[in-house]
Amino acid sequence: MIGFLRGVALFIGAMFLQWWWNTHFAYWGAAPQFLLVLTILIAARRGAVLGMLAGFGWGLYLDVARAELFGASALTLTLAAYFVGVARRQIDLRAPGPLAATTFLFTWASFIGLGLLGLTFTKSFEWSGWIAILVTPFLNAATVTVAALAWDARRDR
Amino acid sequence: MQRETRIANVVLGALSALALLFLSLPLSTPVRSFKAGAGYLLDPLAYHGEAGYRRVAGLPQRIRQLLQADIANESLRAELRRGEWLATTVSTLSLENERLRGALALKAPAGRSPAWVNVMERDPIHWYRSLVVDAGSDRGVSLNDPVLGPRDGRLVAVGRVVDVRPYTSTVLLLTDELSAAAAYLSSGTLEGLVQGQDGPRLRMNYLNAEARLSEGDSVYTSPTSATFPSGILIGRVARVNPRDPFLTFQSVEVTPVADASSYQELIILRARAPEGEAKPSLYTPPSIPVVVSSTAAAVAVSTTTAARPRRRKAAAVSTQTETEAEPAAAPVEPVDPEEAQ
User: Which of A93, B116, B244, B298 is the most buried (most CB within 10 A)?
Assistant: First the structure.
């Protein structure tokens, strides 16, 4: 029960953190994608199923604020969680380095995926801007490293 | 592992299908309804988050304002206390100013140098005997200087100086049993001797046995008084004592007009002003014969202090001082008692 409540609190807290950071600390569209980072981290530590469920819910939250392409973020995060679940069988994603590299790659992949979805369903590539595309992967890699270290520190305690 | 993979595949298929359905049919009623429902559930997060953020963001400023208000409050409280203190001071000074204004309008008898003094101390055990004032030899006060007080716009007799120290003096009140002053009644210019009784009233003795006395007569200092200038109001007759067949004189009870317990400022009529002060007017010879030194002791005792063994020495000193100070004594100016009233 406590684990469930903790999961709900994490789910809502992550959405609040994403909104708060994007609202007050995003510069030229560059901000850490906490929801993507947490989806990857959950999939890497707890498995693809839990990561997909969390990623789908967070994706819907992101899609609600979007005028078009409702479901694009949900699909992107779901796929990200699934592929991280597949990748963790081949790569040791418990180590911060491979996890950061995976996050870095999946950030670009998510940008490309969103663009392709836009191209498919609205006939226009969903372009997030050069600054966001170039800076956000680094921010996400740094964020997932910090989150993984905090996760491990809490588990060790 | 196989089972987990299968579950993951199933979940992926279901969620992806759902997401693709959202993407494919964005304008369909079910999708729009789902989006509206999701928006209804998730939008409050941003809405209330923004409100909460604003509230939290304004917290430091509100705390600062609260601290500033507290500081301002303390400052205003202190200012209010200062204001109250100032109001009290102004009120006190106003009363004092009014009292002194009335005192300034008084005219001291000519020939003497008047000095305003403050009452410092009263002896609670001997309330009717003496008080201490804040002027001594530093201000030219000398023994037997008469002490007057303002009362209803004029000066009345209070007592005389019996002890002079550098900065203070002791005033023997008329109500002290050792005090005595030659006086006369306004009704018939009958002379007598007013003596203290260590009480609120005085006693006037040695009045003509045949005279008709009446209550309410005013009692003034006599020109024969060695201490006071003549015509200074002492009191009023409160009661005429029954005649004593064994005495050759009558006596009356006198209520002094000077309530020594209520005075804060008094006037000492100094024989001479100290250096730096305005000099008194020129000496005018008194219109009554000056007491010769050989009989001074007896006369002075009768007019200033009653002869008591324990005060005999002081009385002698007092007499000598009076005699020496006589040339500078106040000019005796006959005062019409009715006019003085």
Answer: A93
